Amino acid sequence: MQVHDGNVTPGSSGRLTIIQRHLTAVPLSGQVSTANYPTKFCYTLDNNLLTTEQRHFYEENGFLVIKNLVSSVDIESFRKQFEKLCKKEITIPGLLIMRDVAIAKSEYVPDQKAVTKIQDFQEDPVLFSYCSLPQIVKYVECFTGPNVMAMHTMLINKPPDAGKKSSRHPMHQDLHYFPFRPADRIVCAWTAMERIDRTNGCLVVVPGTHKGVLKQHDYPEWEGGVNKMYHGVRDYDLSIPRVHLVMEKGDTVFFHPLLIHGSGMNRTAGFRKAISCHYAGADCNYIDVKGTSQENIEKEVMEVAYMRYGLSDLTLKDVWMIKSRIIKGERTNL
Ligand SMILES: O=C(O)CCC(=O)C(=O)O
After folding, report:
1. What pLDDT is recorded for position 103?
2. CB of 261 closer than 6 A to ligand 1?
3. Whose C-alpha lies nearest to ligand 1, atom 7?
4. Residue ranges of the domains in the chain?
5. pLDDT 10s digits, 19-62
6. Which of 118, 87, 109, 107 is nearest to 162 (CA)?
7. pLDDT under 70: residue ranges of the chain
8. How far apart are alpha carbons 146 and 332 in whole angstroms?
9. CATH of domain 66-328
10. Shortest-distance atom of ligand 1 to CA 158
11. CB under 8 Å to 317, separation ≥6 — which residues?
12. What residue owns the CA closest to ligand 1's atom 6?
């Protein structure tokens, strides 16, 4: 056991045991003992949805898996729409299609083969319907509060690895990409569109790292190259215990933007798919990232924005204001 600020919390090995139990029990986290947890909540808001155990679990670990939250019917419609977009049967304004560094160089075919992810689908009514699914939004409100903004959307399509390990996603904190705060009012919902385990590259998380600070991120020095904007935590310590999140189709994990996470290589022949949205409370504020560790990502984002919109006087805040959408409540600051 460790004692922090007068509160007793389980030590790291005890916590890993609790997490494993959380991941195998149904309902997830229902079996977690609350006996030794702190009583002050920082990362979750008072609400009538999360059980006390679920709140404690998120407070301690920075993530929470909810089983079977999105239906197969919805997932199939996202899959079909994704395929149409890859084949260019439809085009959507603002959509960003990102290609795998190893596959894109060797072959270009207009299908999902080289696509690692599509981003910014706020103008696509089919894919964007994910962000306003009531069963997702009701959990989101437990972290953001009642004024809910959809800030960043992605459908991740991890291709079979081309032999260069470029299908991996380096360990990172999503807050590195976001010029708004406070971090505790931001949450990601990430839904598995099929069973995702270690063979096809599941999410890997470092429990408890949401309690830390935003770290310096850079491109990792990987031999086989690394995909554009896949920054990783500099000097990532491989000895810290990690948890692999094995999830079934429709399972959804909600996680804090400071949680260190990434995903492994896809060793199968299939394209591993997940859909996600980062939400923030509309009462959050934009920050200026000049002079901070986020300057490097700001530079890349602004280069892409210039190519897309052709406007040289856009700011990072403008880019985020253009692509974000109100989901529920009132659009106040963001
Ligand atoms: O789905 C994955 O492989 C990880 C995605 C991720 O962490 C991200 O895009 O920030």
Report:
1. 60
2. yes
3. 262
4. 66-328
5. 555 554 333 433 333 445 556 899 999 989 999 999 999 999 99
6. 107
7. 1-39, 101-113
8. 11
9. 2.60.120.620
10. 3
11. 179, 286
12. 262
CA distance 240 to 235: 12
- Nearest-CA residue for ligand 1 atom 10 is 174
Q: Exposure pattern of 188-225 as b/e (b: 16+ CB <10 Å)?
A: bbbbbbbebbeebbbbbbbbbbbbeebbebebbebeee
Distance 169 CA to ligand 1 centre (A): 6
**Residue 224 CA, ligand 1 centroid: distance in Å:** 19
293: Cα separation from own chain's centroid: 20
